[in-house]
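note to self: dont lose this again. the chain is below, predicted strucutre after it. 96 aa total, dont forget to put it in the shared folder this time
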Amino acid sequence: MTLGTLRDQIIYPDTKDDMRRKRISDSHLVTYLEKVQLSYILEREGGWESVQDWMDVLSGGEKQRIAVSNLKATLDFVCPHTRKVQNNIILLLKMV
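---
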């Protein structure tokens, strides 16, 4: 987990400015949370700008699902021409 907001946990290593430049909206991020069954985190923790000690706040399973949503967000917005992950791995993750 990275230091920062709930949003930062999903978009890491990007920043909020990177996210906006890539035209990723908070509604995109909600979709990632829904796919890993974590949409309740937004309300429970006070929204995207909430800053917590995420290692203590999130359960082990929640941390794992945040990591999956982060990876999915990263792969969805990587330029296909510079992608360094094998296509079969990307296809597998897109099924999540």
